[in-house]
Every structure is written in C-alpha cells, then in structure tokens.
Design a protein that fits this description.
The complex is a heterotrimer of chains A (296), B (323) and C (510). Chain A contains 15 helices and no strands. With 296 residues, chain A is an all-alpha fold. Chain B folds into two domains: 44 residues; 242 residues, MetI-like fold (Orthogonal Bundle). Chain B starts with a helix and ends in a 6-residue tail after the last helix. The chains are: A mainly alpha (296), B mainly alpha (323), C alpha/beta (510). Chains in contact: A-B, A-C, B-C. At the A-B interface, helix 1, helix 2, helix 5, helix 6 and helix 7 of A face helix 1, helix 4, helix 5, helix 6 and helix 8 of B.
C-alpha cells in the first residue's frame, strides 16, 4: 500500500506534454463550470432565505438588504405540512430509513452469504434467477402493489412500508455476493473446527469480514430511502417523511403565502441531516463502494 | 451374528448422524433464506400474480350503470389500440421519450462519468474537492435539486431572467414549462444530477487496476487517449457492463424527474407533454390498472430477449481479464 | 424429494391464493328519486357533546370564512364543536381517505373539489357496492329548508349548477354534493392603465380585437410607455373559451359535450356531441386572433399562475389584461402584491354569436364560474352526518353566505335574486373593494357556465377522456403557432373520430 502511494505521488508531478497540459486545462475549466452550476443554486437559495417575501418578488436574484438567519429559525417551526411538523417528518424519515436500510442489508447479506458460500442443488438456479429478475423490470405492477399495500393495511404505516425494502435479491445482494466470494472459506472452517455452528460462523466470523462493504451499503441505503419521495407519496401520504414533506410544502407555499424565502430556508434545513451524515462518513462511503449503485 | 449387529448398528448410527447433520444444514439454509424468500413471495410474486390477473379482466358497464367484471383478452387489444392510435397517441409519445431519455441520458452520462473519473484518477488540480462536490447530487434529495433547478429557470424569478437581460433581453424562454423544450429540460436535469455514485464506482474500479500495469503504460510512452481506451476501459469493463445492465431497468421506471419538474397548474394535473413509460403508468395507475397490467406483460415479454441480448453482447465484448 | 417440493409449492400457492382473491360483493343499490326533506330533531342531536370534523380546501380563499361560520354555528347550538382541518392537497386526501371506511376515517364533511360520484356509483369500493358505500345521498338535503328561512336549498341554488351535480340513473336522480363557492372568472383588466391610455372596456370580441389595434397604436405613439395587452396562465383561457362556446352553441350543447351524448343519457354516447361543436371553433378563432400578435414579456405562454400574477400586478410591466378568477385578490394579497386596482370585465360577447342571433342583446351574458368544481359532501359512514347536514342548512343561510362573501369576495351558487338579497340585506356593498364590486356586478348580471367532467363513463372510466385530448392547450397551441384555430379544432375532431370505438370499449360500454 505504502509502495503504491509513493508511486502515485510520483505520477502527480510527472511531466506532461504541452498538449496534455492544454487538455487538462480545458477539462479543469469544464470541471469548474460544472462545480459552479452545482454550487450556485444553493448559494442563491441561501441568499434568498435572508430576504422578506416582498423583497424576493421585487429582486429574486440580487443580494438581500440585510444578512439575517431569521428564516432558518422560522423554518424549523414553519416547515410543516398540515398537522405534521418538521420533527414529526424527521422522525418518520429516521424510522423509515433506519428500518429500510437495516432490513435491506440484513436480507441481502443472508441471501448473498448462502448463495456465495453454500453450493446446493438449486443454488445456481436461484442466483441466476436473482440476476435475471433484477434486470427484468417489474413494469405495470404498480396498481397491484398499491392494492396489496391497502389489503395488508400497510398504507400510512411506516413499519409496514419499510418491510417492502427487505429485498434479498436486489442491487445490494450483488455487492455482498461479490464481497462474500472474496472472503476465504477457511475462516468458517476454522470456526467449525472449534465447534461453532453455522449461525455463529456467519454472524461472528464471516459477516465481520465484509463490514466495510456492509457499512457503505447501509449508508447508501439509508440515504437513498431518506431522499426517496415516490414511495412515501404512494404509501405514506398521511404520515409523510421529510422528502415528501418538502414536495408538499412547496405546494402549500405555492398555493398559499408564496413566502419563498421561508420556503428556501425549509429546503436547506431539510438537507441538514444527510449532509451531517455525509460529513461524518464521507470516506467510508467514497472508498467502499465497489460495484456501485444508481441514483433514482 | 452379534458382530454383524454391531456393524449394522454402527452404520445405522453413522447414517443417523449424517441425516442429523444434513437436517441441520438444510434448516440453516432455510432459516437464512426465510426473510429474502418471504419478501420475494409477498412483494414480487403476489403483485405480479395479481397484475397478471388484472391483465385478463374487463369492466363492462351494464344497462344498470354498474361495472360488471369479466374475464377477457380485451386489455391486450387495448394495448394494441393505444399503440396504434392515429391521433393524440400518448403511449407512443411516452415510448419515444423513454428512448430519448434512456439513449441520450446513458449515452452522455456513462462516457462523461468515465472521462470525469479518468481525470480524477489522473489527479487533476483540485481532484479531491471535485470528488466530493460531484458526489453531492446523489446524496441530496432529488426533490431539493428539482426545486433549485426549477428556480434557476423560472421565467419570472429565476437567474435565467438576468442572463437573458445580459444577452440582450426579449422574451424569456420558459425552458421547463414550454412543451417544445420540456424534454430537454428533463434530460438536462437528469444529466446535471446523474454523475454521483457512478463516478465513485468508476473511480474505484480504475483505482483497483494494478499499479504495475499503469506504470508500464507510462514507461511505454502511451498517450492519454490510448491509455484510456486501450487499457483502462477494457480493464474496468466488468464494472462498466454491470452498470449498463443495471441501468436497463431504468428504461421503464424513469419517472421522478418528470414528476418533479412538471409545473402543477391550478387547472389540475394534465398529462405531461414529455412523459415516459413510467410516467404513463403512474398517471393512469388508478383509472387504467387492467390496461397497465396487460401493457406490463407485453413490455416484460419484449424486454426479456433484449436484456439477454445486451448481456451476451457485453460479455462478448469483454476480454475477461482477472486481476 | 422432488414430490415434497412440489407439494410444498402447491401448498404455498394455495396459501397465497386467498390474498389474491377478489373482494366479496353485495348487490348493487340504486338511488331513489326523493322529494322529501331531511328532518332534524335538534333536541336529540345536541343533547350530548358532538364534534364535527371538517376537511377544507386550503387554496385561493383559504379557510378563514369557514372558521367564522363555524364559530357562529357553535354559538347557536350548544354541545357542538367544529374541528376544521385545512388541507392543501385536498383532492388527494379525498381519494385516499373516502374509501377507508369508518374505522380509519373520521372526517364528517369535506369542502373540496368535485367528488367523482359517477365513478363511485359504477364501482365497487370498500366492501359494498357503489357510491352508497362512500357518499351520503344528499337529495333530501336539497329538499330541506335553509336554516332560519322559508326557502329550500334546491330552490335557492342555481338550478344549472345543481344539475351538474346530479347523478341520473335508471332508478332516478340523486345529488351527492353541493357547491360551496361561486365567483366570476374571466378577463381581469388594469383599470388605472386603461384610464391612462384612454382605452374602453370591450363589449364584444370584435371590440377586444380592435383594442389590440389601439394598443399597437398607443405603443407607437408612446415608445417610452409601452403596454402589453396580455399575460396569462394557459389553462385560464378556458374561462373565456367556455363562455364564447356557450354563447354560440347554447349551454345545452356544452352540456352535451361533457356528457358525451345528445339525448341526455350518458350510457348512450354519441360522437356528434363531441365533434359538432362549432361554438368551440368560433371561440378558438377569437383566441387565435388575440394571441397572434402578442409578444408577452416572459414565459413563452406557459407561465404558472403565480408567475402570471406577479407580472400582472407589477406596475412596471404595464400589462393590461389577464384571465383570472375570483380568488385573485386574496391570492395576490398573500404574496404582498396589490390586486385592488384590477376588476373583472363582463366577458365580451362573441361577435360570431351576435351575427348568428342578430343582435347583441340576443346573445346571453355568461360568466364562467368554478361552482361545479367546489363540492361539499359527506361520507356515508360518518357518525355525525346528521350534524353535517344540519350545518350545511346553516351554511346556505344568508347570514353564513354574507360571512363567506365578506371574507373571500366570492359568492354562493345561489340564483341571482338570492345573491342580491343577502348582499343587500347585510350591506356588503358598502365595504367592497373595486375588485369585489366588479365581481358582484358581473355575477348578478350574467348566467353561469362551468365545467362538468364527471358525468359520462367516457370521462370517469378507463377511457379517461380529457377535455383537451390533443395534449396541448389551445392557448399554448396558438401562441406557439403550432396550430391555427381550424387545425386545432380539426385535430380534436379527428381524435374523437379515429378513437371513438376504442374509447367506447375502454369505458366498458361496448
């Protein structure tokens, strides 16, 4: 590892031809432009939070008259959708994300481990079936799924909705299957020799071997559920999460007071929990995603 | 005689203990697979089974003005008629736009992400900063991003008004609201937010290429283009093809950006002029569930060979290098 | 071993099957034409504490009017608490909560948009059949006297609006909702700007078109003080198109269009109801001419209503006219914009209709209203439905209507004489802003036209036929020059003609 690091360091200061330097310069400009397009909307939203509503309608893209964080303070109490306060929605988001992430990763690790490490009649078929079913989109089953959720009384039930995330044969299964394949079986064999059972070997010996991947997937799953608004839109309309709440808050603002500075404050406030999480776990996330997942 | 009994007894014991061990193994496997399989049955088998049932149902209105449910193949006829409508063909338009979003979206985003990660790997100036910033859109909620994107292009309050003034004034185009440019806005939004995790994935994949290989290319005086296309792409091909395969499902489920960028007018929700197949399904979820189920079956039947074909093609193209 | 797996799978399938089974049905129940009124035993009703839970649409008018009316009601009747919950997405709430039944839904009264009672009638919802499993039949309520007055609700309400709310079945007519707001929607104009430029309010569409010529002239002569004729929300042009169409073809023809039939029976659709609507073509021609030479200041003709309002109320933009509704003043006030100098003009009469009928007076004066899409209704399983109905008898009293008008500037869907009566009896004219005074003038001198989408299986069923099926609104089509009036109308006719048999099959009729 250290060796490679030194080698990479040499690469950074390697001589580049004029052509390469020109290319790098051009790409730098493009990167900078893209960065500006990413940062600017947040900056302008932040500036707008310091305006009054009247000020905003007069000059929506200019600087505020006064620099004040009043709207941020208000946002915590005003960011609500009907009877659901920010804290209510935060609680729902937290519960749903934690449960969904936990169930998804649990289910995936169970199936990935069995199929990666235990060869039995049908294991190959199950694996192929999982891959095929994952590639095949479930089109047109939305009405049937909705009806099922109604029949199971899972609608507006956060725990019920989180159960839909316990998919053992999805994207996370793929990553964990790949991860378990690289873990040597000799660890488990050593445990068996010491008298451990299959469950012990799994939970105490093999699972910890992939904890890097597990943690990264847990975080990805958590963030993905946190930001998802389609599932809550369908099934949690009376028990909204932050993402759905934000979507509905915009409608409340648009049809009501049109106090956009307050609205932008609400938008930025809604991002805080995920940003904090990212700041704490950024290296874990960014270093451990081996096969990757897609947004949206 | 007693010896034989002892031997038979020993063999029986051995068989019993083998059976017990096997039972233990089978129990272990079944318990481990209980949660995944239960989820699969409840949330995949049952909805798909019911969906298949819906596809063969038809609600006829009787003279008494009530719906009477019948079993029929008529939904498949409706699918055909929807596809071949002479005027106002929403479904065909949705298929067209789905292709538009998928082909252009992935056609631009995947190579662009690859290029981005290549230059990050080459440690372009400020690469650590860029890694974090480019990853942010996949952390931040799409709802937030859509709100800010819409705000930028708002023809009354958006920055686009200022830009328009600087460029000479005149009528401010409504990039997102105008039916003629709506699909470009949706595509632009998808690309703007879509680099995120793929970037890290490719970055990770490139980073796992053994240093010796990359060093040798340096020593051989290989240029950047050759390095990228003749070395890096083949070496990360399994990752690239997995991403591509996984994105195939997105063809039918692309709907969030359309919903988020649609401006709700007070006249109620009209069918978007730039809708995708996923949008069509979402829009008609409550009124046309039987037709949607039949449509889903048809699409699934069509997509099965396509998926296998793509998988075969990707495997053919790869040189399966192990390292 | 294989056998065991097979048996296991079969058992699993059998276990799953009940989950996939269809819901049980009980026999359908149809409405009975009823002419008797509700009878309220007030002593019994208010003997114990009762709570009336209301969901109210939180838009345009918001809900201060309901709070005040509810407070008055609570004063009059002891033991009643009215619990009001404002809902910004009321349509979604109705869709999600109505079918839930008494265990999961405790809402007693919805002030919402129109419930899809025709669809409910035909379908199985919950465990019972049809509309009677979700909505309370309010036919008797219509026959009941308004609280404190001698007139029944049916007599007081505008009969056309009531008809739009009527479900006609083989067993008779029934009403499942009442209208709770009716204001004037049409062309607002900037009175100050009109005065400054010396323009006069147009009486006919030819006058309106001529006005555009005057605007051009004015702009040439006053280059530093240019005015823009229009800014708009594309769907709000319906408020004018609908009026012109009704003026040319008659309200019956408009009704036929929405019911998709020419003989009044929604179960026998006739294509002529959709394809022979010359009035629509005439209306499109006017709109095309109006938008032909307009270069609006921003948005390309596809603004949201908030953006359009912001531009219209901005004095520096100098916009003359904007199609809007009766909520305009309340909404713009909430944005910190001043809407008081804007008034609604009587919708200019269609010149083609004037030509057709010989004189301007022969053409009826219509105004578009959203009365038919503001429906109040009661879930049939509500435990407080007697209180809900009793509350509604008070809601339609002059006292409550006056509160409504005073707080919102809009009116109830009463017959014109009854509107005049309560406005005058409660001296509401004294405090009216210019905007509201103009509203009152137009409402009491025009007949009502409105939207009626929910009556035909072609519209509420699987066919889901929309009002503008081409996928682009007329305003957008004409402004972007994608279509002319004639090609747009032809495209609509072609749509109906090409897809007629499919639409019939989709709706379950054939």
């Amino acid at each position: 590892m250290v060796k490679n690091k030194i080698r990479y360091k040499r690469f950074t200061f390697e001589k580049r031809t004029p052509f390469q330097r020109a290319v790098f310069a051009a790409v730098s400009v493009l990167f900078l432009l893209y960065t500006v397009t990413l940062i600017y909307p947040f900056a302008i939203a932040f500036l707008n939070t310091m305006k009054t509503s009247a000020e905003y309608w007069v000059d929506p893209t200019g600087l505020p008259a006064r620099f004040t964080l009043r709207n941020f303070a208000l946002a915590f109490s005003e960011f609500k959708v009907e009877e659901h306060s920010y804290l209510d929605m935060l609680g729902n988001s937290l519960l749903l994300s934690v449960l969904s992430a936990g169930l998804a990763i649990t289910s995936s690790s169970l199936s990935a481990y069995i199929l990666a490490k235990y060869k039995f009649r049908g294991s190959g078929a199950i694996y192929v079936a999982a891959i095929v079913l994952m590639m095949l989109p479930s089109i047109g089953t939305l009405p049937a799924m909705y009806q099922l959720m109604l029949d199971l009384h899972f609608k507006n039930n956060v725990i019920g909705v989180s159960l839909t995330a316990a998919n053992g044969f999805g994207n996370y299964f793929l990553f964990l299957y790949a991860a378990f394949t690289t873990v040597s079986w000799s660890y488990a064999e050593a445990a068996f020799v010491d008298g451990a059972g299959n469950f012990w070997a799994f939970f105490r010996v093999m699972l910890p071997q992939v904890r890097g991947t597990l943690l990264a997937l847990l975080l990805l799953s958590f963030i993905s559920t946190w930001n998802d608004y389609l599932t809550p839109y369908l099934y949690l309309d009376r028990n909204p999460t932050i993402a759905l709440g934000l979507y509905r808050f915009e409608i409340v603002i648009r049809q009501g007071s049109a106090n956009y500075p307050l609205f932008f404050a609400g938008v930025l406030v809604s991002m805080l929990p995920v940003l904090v999480l990212f700041l704490i776990f950024s290296s874990t996330l960014m270093n451990n995603v081996s096969v990757g997942g897609l947004k949206g | 005689m007693e010896e034989k009994k002892a031997v038979r007894g020993g063999a029986r014991e051995k068989r019993n203990s083998m059976r017990a061990a096997r039972r233990k193994r089978v129990t272990f496997r079944c318990l481990m697979l209980l949660l995944p399989v239960a989820h699969f049955v409840l949330f995949w088998v049952i909805p798909n089974f019911r969906s298949i049932l819906y596809a063969f149902q038809y609600n006829r209105v009787g003279a008494d003005m009530f719906y009477h449910r019948e079993w029929s193949l008529i939904q498949f006829r409706f699918v055909w008629e929807e596809l071949t409508r002479a005027s106002g063909n929403q479904l065909l338009s949705c298929i067209k736009f789905s292709l538009f979003y998928f082909v252009l979206g992935n056609g631009i985003s995947l190579p662009a992400t690859l290029l981005l990660s290549y230059f990050l790997y080459k440690k372009i100036f400020l690469y650590r900063f860029y890694r974090v910033v480019f990853f942010l859109p996949s952390i931040i909620s799409t709802v937030v991003l859509a709100i800010l994107f819409r705000n930028f292009f708002d023809p009354v309050t958006g920055t686009i008004v200022k830009i328009n003034e600087m460029l000479g004034g005149g009528s401010v185009p409504n990039f997102i609201g105008n039916p003629a440019t709506k699909h470009w806005a949706i595509l632009a939004f998808t690309l703007w937010t879509g680099f995120g995790t793929n970037l890290l994935v490719f970055n990770g994949a490139i980073g796992r290429i053994p240093a010796e290989v990359m060093e040798s290319t340096k020593l051989d005086g290989v240029g950047m283009t050759r390095e990228l296309f003749q070395f890096i792409v083949p070496l990360i091909w399994p990752t690239f093809s997995t991403i591509l395969l996984m994105s195939l499902g997105g063809f039918f489920s692309f709907v969030q950006p359309i919903l988020l960028l649609e401006q709700e007018s007070m006249g109620g929700n009209r069918f978007s002029e730039a809708g995708s197949i996923g949008y069509y399904i979402y829009y008609y979820m409550s009124t046309r569930k039987e037709l949607l189920s039949a449509l889903g079956l048809c699409f699934t039947a069509l997509s099965v060979p396509v998926v296998f074909l793509v998988r075969w093609a990707l495997n053919k193209l790869s040189s399966s290098i192990e390292y | 071993m294989k056998k065991k797996w097979l048996v296991f799978c079969l058992c699993a399938l059998l276990a799953i099957a009940p989950l996939t089974a269809c819901k049980p049905t009980t026999g359908p129940v149809g409405p009975e034409a009823d002419t008797t009124p509700e009878v309220f035993d007030e002593e019994e009703m208010f003997a114990t504490p009762r709570t009336l839970k209301i969901y109210v649409m939180d838009r345009g008018y918001h809900y201060a009017w309901l709070e005040e009316i509810a407070a008055k009601y609570e004063e009059k009747f002891e033991n009643v608490t009215v619990d009001i919950e404002p809902r910004s997405m009321i349509e979604t709430d109705v869709e999600n909560t109505l079918p839930l039944g008494p265990e999961q839904n405790d809402v007693d009264l919805y002030f919402s948009s129109m419930p899809n009672f025709s669809k409910y009638y035909a379908e199985q919802t919950g465990t019972e059949w049809g509309v009677y499993s979700v909505l309370e039949d309010l036919t008797k309520l219509y026959n009941t006297k308004v609280y404190g007055e001698e007139v029944t609700i049916r007599e007081k309400m505008n009969e056309n609006v009531t008809e739009a709310m009527t479900l006609s079945t083989v067993n008779g007519d029934a009403q499942f909702a009442l209208s709770w707001a009716a204001g004037a929607c049409g062309l607002l104009y900037n009175t100050d700007l009109f005065e400054e430029c010396g323009f006069t309010v147009p009486e006919t569409t030819d006058d309106l078109i001529a006005l555009l010529g005057d605007v051009k002239q004015y702009n040439i002569q006053n280059p530093g003080k240019k005015v823009t004729p229009f800014v708009w929300t594309e769907t709000y042009w319906n408020y004018l198109i609908n009026v012109w169409w009704a003026q040319y073809s008659g309200m019956d023809a408009v009704e036929n269009f929405f019911r998709c039939t020419t003989n009044g029976n929604v179960m026998t659709p006739q294509i002529e109801a959709l394809t022979e609507q010359e009035g629509k073509l005439e209306a499109y021609k006017v709109l095309e001419t109006l938008l032909a030479n307009v270069n609006d200041s921003s948005g390309g003709g596809t603004l949201t209503n908030k953006s359009a309002q912001a531009i219209f109320t901005n004095p520096s933009k100098r916009v003359l006219m904007c199609p809007e509704g009766d909520w305009f003043e309340t909404e713009t006030a909430a944005n910190g914009q001043d809407g008081s100098m804007f008034e609604i003009m009587p919708t200019p009469k269609l010149s083609a209709a004037v030509e057709k009928y010989g004189s301007i007076d022969a053409v009826p004066q219509y105004v578009y209203t959203l009365a038919s899409t503001h429906g109040v209704f009661i879930p049939c399983y509500s435990e407080e439905k007697d209180i809900a109905k009793h509350f509604l008898t008070y809601f339609y009293s002059d006292e409550a209507a006056a509160i409504f008008t005073r707080t919102t500037g809009s009116f109830q869907a009463f017959k014109t004489d009854y509107i005049r009566e309560y406005v005058q009896n409660y001296s509401l004219q004294d405090d009216m802003t210019n905007f509201r005074a103009a509203q009152y003038e137009v409402m009491t001198t025009s007949d009502l036209t409105f939207f009626m989408n929910l009556l035909s299986p072609l519209r509420y069923g699987q066919a889901a036929l929309e009002e503008f099926p081409i996928g682009i609104t007329p305003a957008s089509a004409f402004f972007s020059k994608q279509y002319t009036a004639q090609t747009y109308y032809n495209a609509e006719v072609a749509y109906y003609t090409d897809n007629w048999s499919t639409m019939l099959r989709l709706s379950g009729i054939q």
